[in-house]
């Protein structure tokens, strides 16, 4: 089982880098819909990676997660987000606290940090881990970063799902995904949380007439 | 047993008897210094006797405090008379108390006097009481410090023991700490007895009076008792000073001849101090009330120096 | 036997507390029952203490097992018994007083609550002085604080009361926190919370920790005791509380701190360095002096009394500090003597302060006035309260032959004995302490001449004072008993000294009674030191004889002596209360002399009527600057609040910033963990 | 089947509540359901207690002393809270704050919330535990935003976003743990079970576990309200209906803390206790310190209580971090004490809100006059929560602190002294803010009297526990607490 993994890690690596780039789009673009597309694309890559790992490792339960991932992350959730964007009729611009250039620079810094942070771990690991763990951590952090810097509620949701993608990928790449029941639970949670967030994006739009979360600052000291 | 009965009576008689005379003597000397002839040496006695024979007028505002005050003041002075060595170094009520009791017995008299000054509702009285308490409070620490220094030197707070020790070891009197303490004590006595430059006993001006202000409402027998008590206080304070700083000649036992000699010397010593007071009063003006703390502060510093020199130097 | 008595006392207090709550409809009945329970309970307390002090050896008992490691563990030893005695006696009298005083609140507020907390208050004090375990001690100590807090805010509609209560509980709690730290440090070296183990642990504790504990204790107990400058709560809380509570608070509650001092310094921490004693001595004298000086400027009767508590705690601390200093130099006899002085003053202060607060309560009951400037002439209206107050005033002013004088005298004697101490600084300090005590005695006299003179003498200054009537009998009886106690404890000091000596025999291991009392020819037992002796009883007897003689002679001189009653001469105007000297005026010389301390401020506002020649009204505001409040407490609290206000900016309300906090925390901690690896 | 039943009861109750009609019946169903949960839990826990631990469904469920304590708190406060809801929500409903349908939803979500929290405590698989903790967030978001006004929406949004982000980070920790376990065991499968992990924990890669614990601590710490990840907490606590706030503060935080402790045990076993203890101590102390200024200067009483929760969670973390016998014991006791006292406090807050219709402390005076029972209980609760003797929290705080001092470590002694100062300051803030509210003369004309009997019953129920623990810890509880110490220590 060792051999194919080492051989095919190159493929997984390429997928990882593509996922990282699609995440950077989140902080580097000003178009909301582009971001959602990027999300769908990243999920797709993730699904592909998942399928590949299932194939290489011969663990059948990963096929199940791959399938659910395809349905949920590639089709349903992006669709839901598009629906919300259309329904709430919001401006297509992404508003940010800091400029896009600076965001990109900081993202680079974050990627470096991600590598540095996982350095102590990955030096003991196989090659398969060595690239994927930092990348998945970087995806998580960039998602987090996007949540901090972007004003719109919907972009925060996008950041969150990016974080989750990163973690899924981390789980896949480090240990062939979680146990099936955990994976199912995770999917359920992601689904429910995005739906609830969607509902709140809608409600906030109704009450505040904007989904700019910078306006949500009445509760303060 | 005889000593226990005779001596107290003798002391009380001497103190009661002599105290108006000291006042008269000071007045006489002052008059002389001012080139006046002055009243008789015995004028204070005449005053007292006259007052004692009179009825009293009491304010309708006053309460029983007012009536009780003269007695309390007088009796507290009498008690002190029993605690101070006068003619003999042996004190009649040696076991009863010491110099601290004496100081606080004075406080007892003063307490009632100051209370009675408020009793009649006259503003003068209150003013007098307030000032009296101010001066005596300021005098208290210096007094206590100097007394404590003397007690520490002599190894006792009992005046009888102090006198005896100083008499037996006269070399102790050469101690700088004692001299400083006596100096401090002298200043305090001036203040306590209400003499110039702290208080003017001859005046009834509201700006200057302290003791007189307090007793403004008293009359007749009450006034007599208070006046007498205040002159006893002066004499008693002087006696303490005299018999500790110049203990020589005081009778040790209870022999007749010893007592006579002691009496003579006592008169001379008291006379000397009375003379000093008279000179002082003639040469100084009364201080402003708020200058008095400076004077008493000086006395306090002297007493501190005394205690420091006692502990550090010797 | 003693044990049963004590437990009975505890049970009765509890029963009293619960009974008070049970009567919903007949609040007054519940109130009475609870107070009566407290009375009986304190009788049992007295019995406990008396049997203990007369023959007993220490008694220990513990209640149910607690948290596997800690028991409710109590020990009555001689020191405890002495305090139990003080608490129970004062408790007994104050409870009787309460029976009358609470009539003031009938139908106005919930008196059940008063009975409840009052019982618990007395109980908690009893438990404080008997607790034999650090945790139990902390629990009952704080219980005491909390319960007394509720008593302080009993009249909680009054914002001043709330303020006083909050200041009180906050300060007391901070003190308790420090105490807890002190206990924690000590228990580090014992491994157990029991006082049995903590006792004499001092030898094992390193010096630096011991010194830390020392300062923690000074501050922790000092707050409760009300030493300067930690006294802030005391003049606020005492006036706010009902008078019967003030009696107990000032009379005994602040003394529990002294109990703590003694426990720590003489049992837990020895051997102690001499500078501890010196420090306590200095702190004591500062409290003494500043306490009385602020009292002098105070015209609210209860605040005035509260400041005097600060003073008297200082005097007690001088005695205890001296005892500590002597003990450090191994002068055990002198140490014991100084301790006698301190503890004697402790019980004296309990009695006369309780008396004075009781009388202040009487005045308040009769007039609803606390400010003495509005009183006057009460001696003719409260004709029984007046002499009682006078006794208390004389006593607190250390006038012989009352009890205040005896302890002061003992203190002077032990201060004089300071010459035995090798250290020159401490020697000189002892004598200066003597001067401080003398000065404070004189100032106290001034203060009480003011208090008594202005409130009782001359003409009434307000309508309330004019209409005052004597208070109910229970209040008079209890204050009367206290006055009699003042006199007796002044005249017959030996019995009490023997009791304290008994305590010392166990605490310091030395019996000095033979050395300090003696008989003489009148068979009067007198106190006797290496300096001198004192027999207050014989002095009084002689005074009475001399009075008799004086009176007799005077009557002989003029048998038909009469007094003519006439109005006071006030320069031709008919006497009026407005012409009288006021308390402010009475203390004015001091305000000028000590203006550096008081920093008096005065303001005269003149309002003119329309043509500017006629004055309509003149208002005069004169006040002193409370230095510690203005330059210490206020800046500190303002500083803390300012910082807090700034820090609150952290919660900006922006979710992005909140997320950034997490992000930054994550990155920083990852980096730290990696770097440290 | 014995453990799953505990989870099934709340679900059945929740479904029953949503299916019934009217506003009164769900109320009683809810009370009955939570009471049955409580009763069953006691029965269950007694079983576990006699066996020390219990494994159900092939190791899917696992309960030991630690779970006993937490489930006990969940069901106890849950019951009190449902009792309180019956009063509180009915009053609000009668006031026309929301519709009948919404009220049923409330009860549904309430019991789902209880279900998710119980789930956290009984599950053996740490991955599912993560899912359950996330589910607690999801089930309560609508409860936070229940009134659906602007502020509530804001609070709900912050709550879900911040908590989800935090918990997502925790997932990274879970993944790392999983990875290390699978590499240590060399197999892939059920290795996320806590019981399995514990047996092989010493074979884990230390670097990995250290990083994993950090993520877990920050992630679950967000949910537990450890500073500086606590920012959602005051908003959510203050905006949620009071019974929910009580559950949040008293129980939810403890559930997350439960997760942290599980990982703490594994980490300690792998890399030694020092690492995770130090982290717990640092975050604990930060939490305690951070809460001070907000308690000292505060306008909103519910926020005040919320900040106090941060302090207490910090204190529990500190107690776990000190790691000695009495400090762990004390920290666990503190968990219980804090749960009952804080819930009690939030119940009082709810009553105040019903009475005065404001959360501003400025507008409230004379509570003791207007609602005497609430006033008295509020006094006790405030004294208890600030660690004033003789109340229960004092005891646990004292134990933790005494143990920390007795460690003799100068660093920890400084730590603890600082802590004592902090606790005193917090007391100052509480007394200053709350007592002004309790006493004084009422400002407005507020009619005297309590709002609802249910609320008083719920409060008395909790008050009973506060008072009991103040003076006496039952041997059973004592035994459980020492068992917890053994579990923590066994690592």
Describe the 3D structure.
- The complex is a heterotetramer of chains A (221), B (314), C (677) and D (491).
- In chain A, 81% of the residues lie in helices and 0% in strands.
- With 221 residues, chain A is mostly helical.
- Chain A is globular and about 50 Å long.
- By secondary structure, chain B is mainly alpha-helical.
- Chain B has one domain (2-131, 195-286).
- Chain B has 11 helices and 1 strand.
- Chain B has helices spanning 2-33, 43-53, 64-83, 99-119, 123-154, 159-168, 176-192, 211-214, 220-245, 256-283, 292-313, and one strand at residues 56-59.
- In chain B, α7 (176-192) packs antiparallel against α9.
- Chain B is globular, with a radius of gyration of 19 Å.
- The model of chain B has no long low-confidence stretch (mean pLDDT 89).
- Chain C is mainly α.
- Chain C has 26 helices and 8 strands.
- In chain C, the strands form 3 sheets. Chain C has a 3-stranded antiparallel β-sheet with strand order 3-4-5.
- In chain C, a hairpin with a 7-residue loop joins β3 and β4 (526-528).
- In chain C, α5 runs antiparallel to α10 and α15 runs antiparallel to α16.
- Chain C is globular, with a radius of gyration of 27 Å.
- In chain D, a hairpin with a 4-residue loop joins β1 and β2.
- In chain D, α10 runs antiparallel to α11 (273-296), α13 (325-356) packs antiparallel against α18 and α16 (392-406) packs parallel to α18 (453-471).
- Chain D has one domain.
- The longest helix of chain D has 36 residues, at 150-185.
- A two-stranded antiparallel sheet of chain D has the order 1-2.
- Chain D has helices at residues 4-19, 25-51, 65-94, 100-122, 126-144, 150-185, 194-200, 206-224, 232-239, 242-271, 273-296, 301-322, 325-356, 367-370, 372-385, 392-406, 410-438, 453-471, 475-489; strands at residues 54-56, 61-63.
- Chain D has 491 residues and is mainly alpha-helical.
- At the B-C interface, β1, α3, α4, α5 and α9 of B face α14, α15, α16, β5 and α21 of C.
